Amino acid sequence: MANVNGTEINLMPTEGMRAEARRYRAWKEDGEAGGTDVAARRASQILSGDELSPDTVITMAAWFARHEVDKQGEGFSPDEDGYPSPGRVAWAAWGGDAGQTWSTAKGESIKKARGERSAESTEPAADSMAAKGMPSTMDLRDLNSQPLYRSAVVADVARAEDPEVVEFTFSSEQPVERYFGMEVLSHDPEAMNMSRLNSGAAPWLWNHNAEVVLGVVERAWMGDDRRGRVRTRWSPNTKIEGSEEYKRRQDWESGTIRNVSFMYSIDAPLDTTSREGMALVTAFTPMEVSAVSIPADHTVGQGRKATSSAGPPGAAAATVAPLTHNNSNHMEPSTIDMEAVRAQAAADERSRVASITSLCREHKADDLAQGLIESGASEADAMRSVLSEIAKRPAAQPATPAAPVRSAQPIAAGGGSADIGLTDKEARSFSFVRAIRAQMMPGDRAAFEAAAFEREVSEATAQRMGVTPRGILAPIDVLSRDLTVSNA
């Protein structure tokens, strides 16, 4: 029995949990993907014959709350294709459904013994939180166990006087769906710790990729309209024609990429009492800002028309109503239907998990699936990761390699080493028309987005060949397709 503040609580795993942990080990021996090193340790703890620690039980309950959505992914149930999915394998490592029920109940008992509010508490605040579907207490280690991101659609691009400087809004109080409910970042004067952004070393990245540095954050500040702002300076690498940074700067300045994002950590327990239906983050630290391809918070971005600002002249701004902590009716139901937001967020997450699982399975990259799902990767991010993984594999030597194409056109053909392992279906879906249109009309956002698949394939081909293309590369997979079906 574990003694928690004088209360004896039995924290011995159940037989149902042990059966799931044994199932996890059997699946791993069979080569199934799923589960991190932490999952492997958790299975070992469950099978050790010893009681678990109270902190471990609390961690388990939080993990199950975050990963409940994995059960909606394809291959989680025995009657579905792809069973067991990576999510199902990880679920077993933590004790399966038996572990979820057990850790949730034991976690509530531990919190009660420690004097923490729980979903079973009769105190009004706890009742309110339970009604909102939020956990009553959230450890900062759980909240920050994975990187947290906020993204935004960029409005009309506004250029600063110095062509090497870009200024834009990057944060707001827009609610965002998290596993514990709707999260709001407070923009009170002391809520955002801007020390990292103002250190002179905070990067401006592409899609949060530390290997593609667009520039550096020179200054960050809070505007009178309660929005965070940054002034960034382009990296000299963005002037090197053909480099990844050069291409992304062209995307930004042409208006093709119009979104910004930032990564942050939560520095204080959430306030779930000051705003109805919301979890308020009262202290957080931005770590970097990024130009991104997929937005979330559509209310901030570079080029918003200024209303008033505490920052340098010309800084972008946008109007937002101030956060009133004592007014639970601040956001009118007619403006945002919170139930609809939650339902849509859950549906989008199920679709994301299913798509990533299917993509990784189709390309024999199952070991990537769980990590991509847990990191919050988008379908586009997953495609990039899978293509990058394919590019690292030994090249398959075709029986009759296609001859290299030497052309001044924007589409280039790779040699025999540019086979990146596309499926027949994907090779057939590669469109030279879309690729050429995107290259010939760089300012046409619709054409650029329509050629997303072709651009991803080109990047994987370039990585395999070790070259920096001036246009789009077509791998041998695609050329072999055309040579097979053509009489020419």
Q: Helicity range of the residues? A: 25-40%
Helix segment tally: 16
Largest sheet: 7 strands, mixed
In whole angstroms, how far apart are the ends? Answer: 78 Å
User: From the helix content, strand content and strand pairing, which structural class follows?
Assistant: alpha+beta
Q: Give helix and strand order, one letter per element, not per position.
A: EEHHHHHHHEEEEEEEHEEEHHHEHHHHEH
Q: Taking Cα atoms only, what radius of gyration do you get, to the nearest Å?
A: 25 Å
How would you describe the overall organization of this protein?
This protein is α+β, with helices and mostly antiparallel strands and 488 residues long. The strands form four sheets. It has a seven-stranded mixed sheet, with helices on one face. The longest helix has 25 residues. The protein starts with a strand and ends with a helix. The relative contact order is 0.10. The C terminus is likely disordered.
Secondary-structure blueprint:
Blueprint lengths: L1 E3 L2 E3 L5 H15 L7 H11 L6 H14 L18 H8 L2 H19 L9 H9 L7 H4 L4 E6 L11 E7 L4 E3 L2 E5 L17 E4 L2 E14 L5 E7 L9 H11 L4 E8 L11 E4 L2 E9 L45 H25 L3 H9 L4 H14 L18 E3 L10 H6 L2 H9 L4 H6 L1 H14 L6 E3 L1 H10 L3
Parallel strand pairs: 6-11, 7-12, 13-14
Antiparallel strand pairs: 1-2, 3-10, 4-9, 5-6, 7-8, 8-9, 10-12
Helix pairs in contact: 1-2, 1-4, 1-5, 3-5, 9-10, 9-11, 11-15
